[in-house]
Amino acid sequence: MDILLIGGLWLDASAWDDVVPELAALGHRPVPVALPGQGDGAAAATLADQRAAVLAAVDAAPGKPLVVGHSAASTLAWLAADARPDRLAGVALIGGFPAPDGRAYADFFPVEDGAVPFPGWGPFEGPDAADLDAAARERFAAAAVPVPEGVAKGIVRLTDERRFDVPVTVVCPEFTPAQAERWIAAGESPELARARRLAYRDIDAGHWPMTTRPHALARLLADIANTRAADVS
To answer: Which domain, by its residues, includes 195?
Structure first.
């Protein structure tokens, strides 16, 4: 199965470099999605541009792919479910929840000169970054790509109710499945509260398991893909 890998804020497609070989060895076709404005110098990129890149990857897949969104990019994966509900085997959301219709994509951090730079480790102290040592933090910060303002402040538009029929797996790194269930039940993710096929998977990691536990993440994603393949066969 094609597994489309979408990185969150400040990540380019190379964020998945340590996940890709393991997924391929497990019999899947991993496709890291290059997002406009995150690694290609397209400072004027918009959320619509990133959505279009994800949909192009979906449309290029020979069968029904699993779409994986990390952190804020959980919304991009969900936008794919909204735009192509009949074309997806499922979505997997790593450490994030999709923004609802009418909400800004990722208006969380200050904009500087038309982009959102990596804000440093202060906002992520605690479970998010506990498994990143000093060297890993330095590498991450050095490679971080500022996110164009047009992406971060882009307004999410969801139109097709059939998205709620797409199977969703919430991958829980810095929080537990029980916590995620409680948050969704409390109304903190109105989109996932309406998902009709919702599952949870745990992984013992911080917010960036593609960096700290790439092999475990690859095995988990392969297992999710195998389950979805059985559903669509």
So the answer is: 28-57+65-232
Q: Are 88 and 166 in contact (CB under 8 A)?
A: yes
SS3 183: helix
Averages of pLDDT over each 10 residues, the chain, 233 residues: 97 97 97 93 90 98 97 98 98 98 96 95 96 96 96 98 98 98 96 97 98 98 93 68
Helix residue spans in the chain (DSSP H): 20-25, 47-60, 74-83, 134-143, 149-152, 177-185, 190-193, 209-212, 214-232
Q: Which residue type does 178 have? A: A
Q: The CATH number of the domain where 175 resides is what?
A: 3.40.50.1820
Q: H or E segment at 36? A: none
Q: What pTM does this model have?
A: 0.96
Helix (H, G, I), strand (E, B) or coil at 110: coil
